[in-house]
Inverse folding.
């Protein structure tokens, strides 16, 4: 196929291989000009490679420039560092982009939610700089830099401009962390002045959480540091039905990884009942990033059509009885 682009596929752990296979079936049915190469990452490959993020996987994504990734498991409170965090650091995927939008016929407390969380991905407390000062006392360093803050602010405002968004809100705790979060806000303000057509405001993170729960339609694009963004993006996912209903992307200057942001769900792995919606939506974002606009529109339309149609075509997490294959068949038929 002429002008075929290679996409690195990282299946991940648990239900990862199942939702990845389902998503690739849809992409192949779309006849997209893509070739898929499969590489390993996650907790389940440690025994084979001695690491959860093999060097050849990172190199493959650097070469292809784009990856589609299933969920990977991370041990809590011990073990190897997160493969997700490692991939973001090694590839300098500085922006986590999480659009959160209501899905037809998925019953939640709110309708017409349409938010975007833009999260800085490389520093803050997630730099992982911790040490024991004395026994019983641990210090963790929060790193905020002008470079990273300016870069993520510009990404958020650029995204808003390109996608017809009207407002960018900087999320912070500068009332307490006056230097670190203060620097972040200074950078957002400077960048905001370059985008006079976009309304800019600032919201303290705890107040934001309350306001989102009261009325999520108040907000549009939110730009955040790393930790706040991790929490706020999951909160927003809960407004539209959970992590199984939202896509995710981690984007750098030269590479991008599109991934499901939900967990590995080991309790249902291998049973053929996982919901592949989040990874399919992430693949739509990937198609848009690859400038395959028509294919992205068709795939998004098929997902919307299935959710807007027969309520029986739902996986168990949404109260239905469809298997992963049956749900995927319905998406392909809707194309």
């Amino acid at each position: 196929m002429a002008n075929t682009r290679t996409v690195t596929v990282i299946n991940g752990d648990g239900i990862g291989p199942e939702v990845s296979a389902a998503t690739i079936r849809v992409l192949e049915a779309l006849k997209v000009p893509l070739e898929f190469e499969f590489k390993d990452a996650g907790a389940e490959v440690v025994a084979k490679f001695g690491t959860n993020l093999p060097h050849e996987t990172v190199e493959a994504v650097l070469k292809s420039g784009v990856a589609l990734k299933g969920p990977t498991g991370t041990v809590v409170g011990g073990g190897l560092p997160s493969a997700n965090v490692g991939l973001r650091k090694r590839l300098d995927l500085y922006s986590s982009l999480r659009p959160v939008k209501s899905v037809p016929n998925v019953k939640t407390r709110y309708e017409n939610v349409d938010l975007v969380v833009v999260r800085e991905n490389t520093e803050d407390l997630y730099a992982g700089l911790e040490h024991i000062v004395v026994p019983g006392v641990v210090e963790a360093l929060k790193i905020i830099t002008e470079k990273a803050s300016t870069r993520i602010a510009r990404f958020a405002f650029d995204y808003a401009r390109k996608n017809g968004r009207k407002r960018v809100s900087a999320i912070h705790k500068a009332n307490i962390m006056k230097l670190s979060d203060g620097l972040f806000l200074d950078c957002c303000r400077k960048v905001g002045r370059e985008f006079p057509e976009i309304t800019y405001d600032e919201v303290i993170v705890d107040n934001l959480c309350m306001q989102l729960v009261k009325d999520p339609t108040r907000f549009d694009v939110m730009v955040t540091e790393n930790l706040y963004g991790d929490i706020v993006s999951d909160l927003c996912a809960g407004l539209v039905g959970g992590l199984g209903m939202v896509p995710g992307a981690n984007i750098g200057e030269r590479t991008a990884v599109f991934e499901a942001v939900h967990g590995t769900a080991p309790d249902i792995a291998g049973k053929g009942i996982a919901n592949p919606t989040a990874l399919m939506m992430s693949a739509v974002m990937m198609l848009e990033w690859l400038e395959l606009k028509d294919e992205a529109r068709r795939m998004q339309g098929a997902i919307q059509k299935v959710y807007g149609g027969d309520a029986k075509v739902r996986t168990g997490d949404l109260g239905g009885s469809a298997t992963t294959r049956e749900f995927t068949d319905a998406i392909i038929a809707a194309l």
